Amino acid sequence: MVQQGWEHCSVTSRRLLAAAFLCGLFGFSVVACSESTEKGAIPTEGASSQIDRNDDVPQVVHPLDATPFLKHPCQLVDDKFLARFGDFEKGEPDVESSHAQKLIGPTCVWYGKEDFDRAVSVIIDTPHQKYAQPELRGLGGLYASKKSGSMDYLQPVQIPGHSDYPAVIAGKQDDMVENRACVVYVGISDDLTINTSLDNADSVKEACEVAQNVAAAVLDTLKQAD
C-alpha cells in the first residue's frame, strides 16, 4: 500500500513514487512486481498453475472496450467529479514507464493538494490481462489469491448504477486499516479489470465508498464511449 510520510516533490519523483506504491497496491495477487523477469513480462506464481478458474468468479456479460483510454487514462474520470471527495491536483498519467507497460498498466493518479498522501488512482490492468495465465486474468486472479491465502479480504460489491458489472473490494486487511485505503476491482471483461482506489482517507469505509464512486464514473465514461 502507500507508504506514509511522502513529502511534496517534483512530477518526475511523484511518478516514481506512484509506481512504487501502485505496484504494492495492485500487485499482490498473481503477479510479481519486478523488472528482472524474462523479456520484462509479469510472471505468475508457480503455484498458481495448479489453480483452476473458480466457479464463483462472476462473468462479464457485456464487455467494455478500454482501448481508447490506454494512452489517456486520466480521461476516465473528470477532475470536477473528484472535487466531491476532496481538493485534488490535476491527474498525472503514466502510460510509458516500464511499470505502466509491464507491471501495473496505464495509470492516472490524482494527489491531494494539501494532503499529498491522499490520492485517488485509476488503473487499466492490461499487463495482467496479457501475461497472467488465462484462468487468473480479470477477477479470476483475485479469487485465486483469496483462495490461496495471499490476501485475506475479498468482498463482492455493486457499483452504484452499474450492477451489471461485477466488482470486488480486495486486499490485505492490515494494510487497508493501516493506510485507510481501499481498492475496488471492476471486471469490464472476463480477462480485464479496472482498479480504482483512495489512499489515506479518513477511514477505510470512506476509502471504499469513494473508490466505488470513482469506479461508477469510470464505467459511465466507458459506456458512453462504447
Give a brief description.
This protein is of the alpha+beta class.
Protein topology:
Layout: H1 11-26, H2 79-82, E1 92-94, H3 98-103, E2 107-111, E3 119-124, H4 126-131, H5 140-148, E4 153-159, E5 162-171, H6 173-179, E6 182-189, E7 192-199, H7 204-225
Antiparallel strand pairs: 1-2, 2-3, 3-7, 4-5, 5-6, 6-7
CATH topology: Protein Transport Mog1p, Chain A
How many E strands?
A: 7
* H/I helix tally: 7
- How are the strands of the largest sheet arranged? 1-2-3-7-6-5-4
Number of domains: 1
Q: What top-tier CATH class fits best?
A: Alpha Beta
Overall CATH architecture = 3-Layer(aba) Sandwich
Helicity, in percent? 25-40%
Q: Per DSSP, what share of the residues sits in E-state strands of 2 or more residues?
A: 15-25%
Structural class comes to: alpha+beta
Low-pLDDT stretches are: 1-21, 24-52
String of helices and strands: HHEHEEHHEEHEEH
How far is it from the N-terminal to the C-terminal residue, by CA? 32 Å
Note the main sheet: 7 strands, antiparallel
Mean pLDDT: 81
